Amino acid sequence: MNYIVFDLEWNQSPYGQSGEHPRMPFEIIEIGAVKLNDQFEIIDEYTSLIKPKLYKKLHRSIRAMLNYSEEELKTGKSFKDACSEFLKWCGDDYSFCTWGASDLYYLQSNMDFYYMEKLAFPLKFYNIQQIYADMYDDEGKISKLEKACSELKIPEDEPFHAAINDAKYTARVLAKIKPDNLEERYTFDIYRHPKKKEDEIIARHAGVLERISREYSSKQEAMSDKDLLIIRCAKCGRKCFRKVKWFQNGSSTSMAIGRCVYHGYMSSRIKFKSAGSTEDGVFIVKKTERTNRKGYEEVKARQIELREKRKMKRHKEKE
Length: 319
Prior knowledge:
6-stranded mixed β-sheet; hydrolase; globular; Nucleotidyltransferase, domain 5; RNaseH_sf; 2 domains; 6-stranded antiparallel β-sheet; alpha+beta; 31% helix; Inhibitor of the KinA pathway to sporulation, predicted exonuclease
């Protein structure tokens, strides 16, 4: 199997939301990619400029970053031709690698705009930005590509913000950090998500038990699904005893703590994602992983803190 490390550059309406197309707010104008073997060595590369169809004038912030002009973009290929050529170049047995999750999202949104055949589902990829953060930052904070290259002392011999150069830099980061368990560190792309219960994604990888749910009509419906709220051990899959009940920790996140009789405390988080099909429709990304007594106590303290804040707010409203 090969690794396809790719990067995109995109443009947006130079006139703000008034000039934005609702189906494609970000239009891809460059694809750059390198193909790696299983030793993370570059064995081939692909690059193409794309002639814009919607936003022919570069947004001022985009123009400031890029290393080419609007005139050069006029010589580019159509998106359909470039994307088809790129996907054919990828071959039959490969995994995508990107710096962050945005590139895959925008690639698919542009493909949908032109009614191209969809990518495989569910789609796994390697988010090198997150893998780097997990390995090199105690708090898992993500870094810009430039910062990672500087920290790893990777020679910066080409300008950033050219798709082929950023793809090469991302590949060099991957080759430098060489994660032993890379095959376990995959991420599920959620540009597309399960629609029905039988299509839900449940996987155990890199010490995390992950579930990507079907669509719900609202957050309230999701949080009334008893099956979804069961906390299972990230190691053995057994049902855990509830130690901290589910509570809302921000507008799009809920948390809980369970305890497996064999493997100890388990921290579980639910993130609500817009399903897009209805105004209030959501799907859920739920991740459960092992924690310790300290982690349990911190989540418990957070629950109590938020509970007291709500009490104070209700008290003030009654005054």
